Amino acid sequence: YDLLTGKHLVITAGPTREPIDPVRYLTNKSSGKMGFALAQAAAEAGARVTLIAGPVALDTPNRVNRIDVVRAEDMHEASLKAVEEGCDIFIATAAVADYRPTVTADHKIKKSTEEIHLTLVKNPDIIAAVACHAKRPFTVGFAAETQDVIEYAQGKLKSKKLDMIATNDVSGTNVGFNSDNNALTVIWPGGHKVLPLASKAQIAKQLIELIAIRQS
Ligand code: C5P
């Protein structure tokens, strides 16, 4: 309790949905569970919490201010607005689509030739933009990898200028995407801590404690 009293946390969660036409989109398998568990743990630790959520089927935790978004560009805009207004800690758990269709068709695309082509353009890197902001909060990222987990995570910590990165190996079936359990290795410049397999609620509580200690 009270570990984060007076602090404003912003958390991104869930997938993003990138429209192809009015009835079709690109997305991924993120459930949003880890981000929602972190929002709940942060609120229970006394923080004011803004949860920027992509399309997910989850209830909003108590005392959490939820902003629903759809596309990566919407999540980017909502995140930068929250940072601009002032926050102490930013945690990016969202599985942001790396690419979006270059154009969204105004009308449903008709079935035609045997082969059609979809051109994609890179989405903005939300957490990298937050970490470079003049009003930079303590910035925590996530990395879901299937191989060389620690090496990739350390690379991301540096390249995105993060204060901390939480990494999980999503090659197994009992952790990560859509599971109720998770195991994390949390890395920061000069140290790391392993949070062994536990419920996402328990993992969230431990990660919030670690963040509260390191950002103070
Ligand atoms: O580069 P990668 O997608 O693996 O990085 C994962 C971390 O970066 C996560 O914290 C994720 O929420 C964040 N991210 C982001 N905006 C993107 C891509 C990833 O905030 N466009």
Question: What is the topological layout?
Answer:
Elements: E1 8-13, E2 18-21, E3 24-26, H1 33-44, E4 48-53, E5 64-68, H2 72-85, E6 89-92, E7 99-101, E8 120-122, H3 126-131, E9 138-145, H4 149-159, E10 164-169, E11 181-188, E12 191-199, H5 200-215
Parallel strand pairs: 1-4, 1-6, 4-5, 6-9, 9-10
Antiparallel strand pairs: 2-3, 7-8, 10-11, 11-12
Helix pairs in contact: 1-5
Bound molecules: cytidine-5'-monophosphate.
Give a short synopsis of this structure.
This protein is of the alpha/beta class.
Overview of this protein structure:
In the C-terminal section; belongs to the PPC synthetase family. Its EC number is 4.1.1.36, 6.3.2.5. It catalyses: N-[(R)-4-phosphopantothenoyl]-L-cysteine + H(+) = (R)-4'-phosphopantetheine + CO2; (R)-4'-phosphopantothenate + L-cysteine + CTP = N-[(R)-4-phosphopantothenoyl]-L-cysteine + CMP + diphosphate + H(+). It comes from Alloalcanivorax venustensis ISO4. By secondary structure, this protein is an alpha/beta fold. It has one domain (8-105, 117-215): CoaB-like (Rossmann fold, 3-Layer(aba) Sandwich), CATH 3.40.50.10300. The protein is built from 5 helices and 12 strands. An 8-stranded mixed beta sheet has the order 5-4-1-6-9-10-11-12, with helices on both faces. It has a two-stranded antiparallel sheet with strand order 2-3. Helix 1 (33-44) packs across helix 5 (200-215). The longest helix has 16 residues, at 200-215. The mean pLDDT is 94. It binds cytidine-5'-monophosphate. Cytidine-5'-monophosphate binds at residues 12, 72, 92-94, 96, 123-127, 141-143, 156. Cytidine-5'-monophosphate (C5P) is lined by residues 12, 72, 92-94, 96, 123-127, 141-143, 156.
